[in-house]
Amino acid sequence: MKTRIIHAFIEETRNNGIKFTMDDLARRLGISKRTLYENFSSKVEILDSIIDLTLTEFDEQTRLIIDNPELTLPEKIKKAIVVLPKYNEFYDLRILEQLKRSYPAQWERLNREMHQWDDLKGLLEEGIRTGIIKDMNIDLLMKLIIEASNITLDRQFFLGHSISITESFEMIVDVLLNGFMTEKNDECTGT
To answer: Where the record puts its DNA-binding region(s) (predicted)?
Structure first.
């Protein structure tokens, strides 16, 4: 039942924004408010559950990538950047802005988590140590990757341009790791 409630919560949010009532949610589910409150005491508890589940799954998926001995370091870096957590459809700019205004504690937690990525930083540091990544300021590199990844939160842009979130992440990773110039770029730069 809790999973069903979470899915309905996300659907309600996607359709109507974050300002709906527990009555609206119970109606969407076709259950009584009492049944809803037996599972979750408030909207905040549901929000916290979504955030907890998302962050836990994100960490678990990343850990599986890092611990996979069959992957090379470049493959681990690429796969770590494109990890999509459960309920990723919940995270878009519109919802985050509403969270910031109406649920500042939840927004603050999400914002903090979205701007730190210790596992990826460890992979990048290893890449610098082993020479597969240029020696550069790791904090600036992390900010570049995080900010590039966070543009996928602009769901309206991607929907409007018929680009899936997975495709957008893959393109972002490709540009970050390989650049956007073709091999003909030597002619342009004179090298």
So the answer is: 21-40
What CATH number corresponds to the domain at position 175?
1.10.357.10
The tokens describing 95, both together, are 């919802």
**What is the pTM (predicted TM-score) of this model?**
0.81
- The amino acid present at 117, given as its one-letter code, is W
Measured CA to CA, the distance from residue 100 to residue 147 in angstroms comes to 18
> How is residue 61 written in tokens?
């998926």
Q: The tokens of 103 are what?
A: 């649920």
> CA–CA separation, 106 vs 24, rounded Å?
21
191 lies in some domain? no
pLDDT tens-digit series, residues 70-111: 999 999 999 999 887 666 778 888 888 999 999 999 999 988
For CA atoms 121, 122, 123, 127, give the dihedral sign. Answer: positive
CATH at residue 13: 1.10.10.60
pLDDT tens, residue by residue, 12-39: 998 888 889 999 999 999 999 999 999 9
Residue 189 reports pLDDT greater than 60: no
- Read off φ and ψ for residue 17, nearest 5 degrees: 80, 180
Total structural domains within the chain: 2
148's CB contacts (< 8 A; 6+ apart) are: 172, 175, 176
Residue 135 CB contacts under 8 Å (≥ 6 apart), including other chains: 128
